[in-house]
Amino acid sequence: MADVNRGNRPLSPHIMIYRPQMTSVSSIMVRFSGLGVFAVAILIVWWLLAASTSESGFVAIDGFLRSGFGDILLTVATWALWYHTLGRLRHVLWDFGYCLDVKVAEKLGLGMFIGATLLTVITVLVV
Questions:
Q1: I need a surface site. Which of 32, 37, 59, 125 has the fewest CB within 10 A?
Q2: Is 14 assigned to a binding site?
Q3: What is the mean pLDDT of the chain?
């Protein structure tokens, strides 16, 4: 039977006292960025379908995507795409057994935020 001596075991960290680490925050952000990219991909598919089917439908979705809000949405989606890509590359490094040290993993997490931001600025300026 399992050891039932619960007095000597540490308690799990509680949500109110647990301090998020860079590795956990970057991992969660990779998942959120993937969901965001998927949501924007639906808008892009809608735009393509409207372009191939209906002029009035295309004008509506194209107007939305070219509006100020659409520009912000597509810029954030570009950041999310770059961030998600860098997160996947980080996991490839980890799969090969590289950069598994905690300090290096934290630097990679910070590098993902900085890298995604720089790549988004370059993408917005070039495109």
A1: 125
A2: no
A3: 90
